[in-house]
Structure prediction request, 203 residues.
Amino acid sequence: MSNKLVHIVEDDESMRRSTSFALKTSGYAVTTWNTGAAFLKDVKHAEHGCILLDIRMPEIDGLQVQQILAERGVTMPIVIMTGHGDIGIAVRAMKAGAVDFLEKPFEKAALLAAVEAAFDRIAKADEAVARAVAADVVLGVLTPRERDVLEGLAQGLPNKTIAFDLGISPRTVEVHRANVMAKLEVRSLSDALRIAFAAGMGG
Prediction:
């Protein structure tokens, strides 16, 4: 995607236009929605990007939109736009996962900084997914029992406990552990654990 896409969800037309103009002239692609309900209706077809979400809108406000997006598993990062004096609401939105909030009227520089922070989050999430996929592929070389031993290690359990849980001797755990290290081509347990954690083990 050459142009990063920003979805502006804002009921005030002049605000929509000025924000859209500021983003387009800075090289972003922009789509605009005049209500939260309209955005929610189309979001499953919307291209991935970041969402600039106004808090105070008729019918359904920004916090509700944010909540519904989370329930639907929409992971696009959100930057909240608030009127003066809505800091309490903005903090609630941040606690619910918003990347940043902008108090109106905001400077173009603040807008661009918030939007860039949102795209940084997408890049980091993509990296994390790529790492998890790579780790899963690497762990594919292990036998189910070796995976069980690595899972125990990732949970911080001592060899004796892992042995007891799996119904094998501590000596066998050590053999599996050595095989895990050899197959993963790592020198230290911490390197093996990094791969395990990237694949979501030890949770």
Summary: The chain has nine helices and five strands. The radius of gyration is 23 Å.
